[in-house]
Write a structure and sequence with these properties.
Length: about 400
């Protein structure tokens, strides 16, 4: 029996299987990226589906991938056959093989808990708006997305004028709202405002007052002692709120452009009216993540469109759309597409009427706000659809 060629071929087969192990490591990293891409696609399609439901005045249903697990198994085999005999030459056959199998498991949670519902119905706070503002997001995009309307008060001698500027392209006041958004985007600044002071307990004498700073750790709290004037002191708590101010705004229709300060609560607005009755002021009525989806659903209607100002002189309006949805067949490409109500709809990818403008940025901000206002408790262990793929 001649086996001179068996050993080299066997070594070659083992080397091939070793290379197969390297391929398996690459496959593992590819699968991890695939899972990430799948989670992105699922989130974007879920948001677009709910935007279309909001457009049609239908109930929204939220789901989320609470967990993705995968099992990757590598397999390798070597088969060999050798025939010898005086009547026939040696026949040597090797059949090395290797491969892997992937079995991902997905947990899809139906987000219908009380905590989740309360979270998506909570208006976005000014501190969140300020964070995005400071991080360099387009200010007009932010204001159009999160502000539902502005309730203005413009004091005048002997009277007070009030106006409501609606963030709705079908409303007559929308042009004035857009003008205010431009003023805020160009000149807006954030300020802290001590809008309300509450008395804590009865007045105390000087001896008791000397012990209070230690008791309440006043250096690290909003509590302060104020002399009353009769030898006693009053413990007070001051509530601080953010306000958005813009100098040189023509919102109140005056020839001399004035400073306007905007608050996010009626309490802060009323306090501002008491402290400075002659100054223009207003209230930012903020949207919740749920109402942002409703707003984007309205913009998905063909007769409604919101565009931000151009970033360069020749920038077309199609690149400045806040949000756009088209029938999937109307454009050659798409950023996100879903099947809905017997048809297929997409956030388009292209130019002219197929330009998505700021649609994906609007979707990304909405997704962040939606996640920010929910907690781990919003991923229940019940009402879960489990999908096992082979």
């Amino acid at each position: 029996m001649r086996c001179s060629n068996v050993v080299p071929r066997l070594m070659s087969a083992v080397a091939a299987l070793a290379l197969g192990g390297c391929v398996t490591h690459g496959a593992l990293s590819n699968r991890a990226v695939d899972y990430n891409t799948a989670a992105e696609t699922a989130r974007n399609e879920m948001l677009l589906m709910n935007i279309l439901r909001a457009r049609d005045r239908r109930p929204m249903v939220f789901t989320g991938l609470s967990r993705i697990t995968g099992s990757v198994r590598a397999e390798s085999r070597i088969g060999a056959a050798v025939s010898t005999g005086s009547a026939a030459p040696d026949v040597q056959a090797f059949s090395p093989s290797f491969g892997f199998s992937d079995s991902p498991t997905f947990d899809v949670a139906v987000l219908d808990s009380q905590e989740f519902t309360r979270g998506i119905m909570t208006p976005v706070g000014t501190e969140i708006l300020e964070y995005f503002w400071d991080q360099g997001y387009n200010r007009e995009v932010l204001l159009y997305l999160v502000v539902d309307r502005v309730e203005l008060e413009c004091p005048a001698p002997g009277s007070a004028l009030s106006a409501v500027l609606e963030n709705d392209p079908t409303e007559p006041s929308f042009a004035a709202f857009g003008s205010l958004v431009a003023d805020l985007a160009d000149k807006g600044r954030w300020e802290f405002d001590d809008f309300r002071t509450e008395k804590i307990g009865p007045p105390v004498d000087a001896a008791e007052a000397r012990r209070l700073p230690t008791l309440v750790q006043m250096a690290n709290s909003p509590l302060r002692l104020r002399p009353v004037g009769d030898g006693t002191f009053q413990l007070e708590k001051t509530s601080t709120k953010l306000r958005l101010a813009a100098s040189g705004s023509g919102t109140c229709g005056k020839q001399d452009r004035v400073e306007v300060r905007l608050y996010d609560s009626r309490g802060a607005l009323e306090a501002a009216a008491r402290l400075a009755p002659g100054e223009p002021r207003g209230r930012l009525v903020m949207r919740s993540p749920q109402s942002i989806l409703h707003y984007l659903g309205e913009l998905a209607r063909p007769e409604r469109e919101v565009v931000i100002r151009p970033r360069r002189p020749d920038q077309p309006a199609s690149e400045r759309r806040l949000f756009a949805v088209r029938p999937a067949g109307a454009c050659s490409g798409s950023e996100v597409n879903v099947r809905y109500d017997g048809g297929k709809w997409a956030i388009p990818r292209g130019t002219a009427d197929c330009d998505a403008g700021r649609s994906m940025q609007s979707l990304a901000i909405t997704a962040q706000l939606l996640s920010l206002l929910q907690s781990a408790k919003d991923l229940p262990t019940t009402s879960t659809v489990r999908i096992v793929g082979q």
